[in-house]
Amino acid sequence: MGDTVRSEIIDGMAVITTDKLPVNALSSVVRKRLWLALDAANEVDDVDAVVLACAGKTFFTGANITEFGPPPEDPLLPEIVDMIEDLGKAAEEVVSRTLFAMINEGAKILCEGIASRSSDIDLVYCNRYGFPSYRGGPTVYGEQMGLHKVLDSIRQFQDKFGDRWWKLTPVLEELVATGRNRFE
Questions:
Q1: Could you give the 3-state DSSP secondary structure of residue 99?
Q2: pLDDT, tens digit (0-9, with 9 covering 90-100), for 10-42
Q3: pTM over 0.70, yes/no
């Protein structure tokens, strides 16, 4: 579990990578390690941006079910998002990349049949990870923002950073191509 979150500086970017997460869950241990990595990146003057990435087949599927009984431990997801916003290191792009990655992953989860409705994904993020409920969850937020904007931004990130970091979920392209702006 010691290498679940690692950080390296590459060309002025702090690349914080999650790997080998137990059941791919964003547990309190992972959140704490993300917090520490973000704090360390903030202390480096030569870092202009922070990239959050998942290695190999790692992805965040939802809450760690072993944490469902007691109240969630700090830091919660909103605290991590607030920290990212306060970094002062290309904050808008960092938040956009994080949110668009969530929206893209949500589309992938729907395509693979892991969740049957986009509202299932939003409920998990709002109730277990502290995604701001007034935003409705990542899929609702993407719909409100406009899936065409999400798609365009993901394509830009893909062009800029390559397929290693950004693999577009085909359903987003399909939804935008057919003029739909809803996951369901």
A1: helix
A2: 877 888 888 877 665 677 888 888 899 999 988
A3: no
